[in-house]
Specification:
Distance between the termini: 91 Å
Structural class: alpha+beta
Number of domains: 5
Strand content: 15-25%
Number of helices: 19
């Protein structure tokens, strides 16, 4: 079926809850979705003029037919959807590519064993612990064991008889017992390795209890050196546990998620996004995963689908708390399904403060870092643009931002500056200057309207170019409040353009205070990254406009000086300044050079030369 035929079939669906199954030309199920009302949901895919994000558009293009199953409730539809996804694993449901292999802890079979984290087992005679699903957890555990038991992490070979070797820096800072240099006996080192293996198998609490018993036994038998070594290792375990408690205190057992959207590059339909999770167990960070996906058009719907997909495909249990710093579509239904799957209550939380909010911010920072690595932007820029988009309610982070400011002196030399920020950084090649032409005097509102209107008119003549006026911005920011905003909104409406536009409001100290929106103000105080970015944009727009105004005012003053010379009017003064660029170059010019300027003959050149060089 073509899209028109599919739309006709969808119009015949019932308005009941249920599940729909999209199929390709071969009859394979490529997508499973649930709906509160089947007809309303499925028609959205195939109606004429429908706009979808990249994933949905690809799915629709490959859909040749669909089936549906009616259910008694939306919750039944959700349960059935999850069951069918797990059974068929449709191509367009599996957003999270599970490319994580298993990880292992390796203990080498050498005389001096070495503990390391490995991605795969090898037939090398070594002892392997695992497999483990989390490489993050394995790497952290091995690093902790090395630190506590002072085990080597270098690539040196450790012959037991070599005692004249100089140890590396790790030995001198207390991180390694230097078996390569004979600084520790073989039996003592093997005991440390055995303790480290017990630590990795049983955890810090069990290992600490066992080592404490060994320490007391050593003290009773007057083996004070061994007791002191065990005491130091117990202290190292306590230090790491205390550090973990400080970092993760109050989180408990929880999975913390973040979805950070990336701005699309020029020519792309949409950008990328990163879905990240940090998994905490007993307040300790035990796993971390990041998935770079196509940026969704609806963040709340994507969050619901991503969470369902994550717990469908992952093992290791569902925690009692799932933290997500944003809206989740069908949150109550999802909580009900997760609770039924876990056999106890599961809550999806959006914390505003406290330890969980701190963990959510940490997860968002990790997602921004991962996204920055895949898009070429810095983590700071990616996080700031994502935060600004969420603050302003934009569908995606703005890749190109234009900002405008007006500058004048009591209505004279009225000018404007347009600055451009691309991917969160100044793009100076696209900056533009404007001289206000529509009126004289002081009227910031009319000036702003004129400038934006002229900029949009230039777009029509330069459309298609990537820089300058040839590309429309994703966001327009105006220096000012509701007045400037009210003057520009009709300009955009008359042009038939739907570009988000906001004002940048300053406080009494000329610092950015808030964002002016159509109908009120949006506070910036709690949005640290967005505040920093908007402040930078506002300051840059002001600097650029003021610099242009000052250059115009200086030129006007110089032109006024020239008009005092007999035979030189305003037009000739401007011609001279344009020809020589600066007053200094004009003063250094000879009569022959002056005569070369437009409209200046030999006779007038002599008069000008005499006037400029008369004491």
């Amino acid at each position: 079926m073509n899209r028109q035929q599919l739309n006709k079939k969808a119009l015949g669906l019932p308005a009941d809850p249920g599940v729909y199954l999209m199929k390709n030309a071969a009859g394979d199920i490529i997508y499973v979705g649930k709906a509160k009302a089947l007809k309303k949901r499925v028609v959205q895919y195939f109606r004429a003029g429908a706009v979808h994000d990249i994933k949905v558009e690809r799915m629709v293009e490959n859909t040749a037919d669909f089936d549906y199953i009616v259910t008694r409730s939306e919750f039944e539809a959700l349960v059935l959807e999850c069951s069918l996804i797990k059974q068929h694993r449709p191509k367009y449901n599996i957003l999270l590519k599970d490319d994580k292999g298993y990880s292992y802890i390796r203990i080498s079979a050498d005389d001096i064993p070495v503990i390391s984290a490995e991605k795969r087992m090898a037939d090398d005679g070594a002892q392997y612990l695992g497999p483990f699903t989390s490489s993050f957890a394995v790497t952290n555990a091995v690093e902790e064991a090395r630190r506590i038991f002072r085990l080597p992490d270098c690539g040196r070979a450790f012959p037991s008889a070599q005692t004249n070797r100089r140890p590396c820096l790790n030995h001198f800072i207390g991180r390694c017992s230097a078996p390569c240099a004979g600084k520790i006996g073989l039996e003592e080192y093997r005991e440390s390795v055995s303790q480290a293996i017990a630590f990795l198998k049983g955890g810090s609490a069990a290992t600490r209890k066992d080592m404490e018993a060994q320490m007391l036994e050593a003290a009773e038998t007057l083996d004070f050196e061994r007791a002191a070594r065990l005491r130091d290792k117990i202290a190292a375990i306590d230090k790491i546990r205390a550090k973990q408690a400080v970092i993760c205190s109050g989180v408990g057992r929880a999975d913390v998620f973040a979805l950070v959207l990336g701005a699309g590059k020029p020519g792309e339909k949409s950008g990328k996004a990163c879905f990240a999770v940090l998994r905490f167990t007993e307040g300790k960070l035990t796993d971390s995963e990041n998935f770079v996906i196509d940026s969704p058009s609806d963040s709340a719907a994507a969050a619901g689908e991503l969470l369902r997909g994550y717990y469908l495909l992952r093992t290791g249990g569902i925690p009692p708390k799932i933290v997500y710093d944003g809206d989740v579509e069908d949150k109550e239904l999802l909580e009900q399904w997760l609770s039924a799957s876990a056999g106890r209550r599961v809550r999806i939380l959006r914390p505003a403060r406290g330890a969980l909010a701190g963990a959510a911010e940490l997860c968002r920072s990790n997602a921004a870092e991962k996204l920055a690595g895949s898009t070429g932007r810095t983590a700071r820029e990616a996080a700031a643009l994502d935060e600004l988009a969420r603050l302003l309610g934009l569908p995606s982070p703005p890749a190109v931002i234009e900002a405008y400011d007006i500058s004048h002196t009591s209505g004279s030399q009225n000018v404007a500056g347009m600055v451009v920020f691309k991917d969160g950084s100044p793009h100076k090649a696209a900056y533009k200057r404007f001289i206000i032409k529509g009126f004289s005097g002081q009227d910031d509102y009319a000036s702003m309207a004129e400038v934006v209107e002229r900029r949009l008119q230039r777009y029509e003549s330069e459309k298609g170019q990537n820089d300058g006026f040839g590309r429309l911005p994703d966001l327009i920011l105006l220096d000012g409040g509701s007045g400037q905003l009210g003057s520009v909104l009709p300009v955009l409406k008359n042009a038939g353009l739907d570009i988000p536009v906001f004002g940048m409001v300053k406080d009494s100290r000329h610092k950015t205070r808030a964002i002016a929106a159509d109908g009120g103000e949006i506070a910036l105080g709690a949005q640290r990254r967005a505040y920093t970015l908007v402040s930078q944009i506002q300051e840059e727009a002001h600097r650029f406009a003021v610099a242009f105004h000052r250059s115009r005012r200086k030129a006007a003053a110089l032109a006024g000086t020239l008009t005092n010379i007999e035979g030189v009017g305003p037009a000739k003064a401007r011609a001279l300044l344009k020809h020589f660029k600066t007053m200094k170059a004009l003063e250094n010019a000879g009569e022959a050079q002056l005569a070369e300027a437009p409209g200046i003959g030999k006779k007038l050149a002599a008069v000008i030369y005499t006037a400029l060089h008369s004491a």
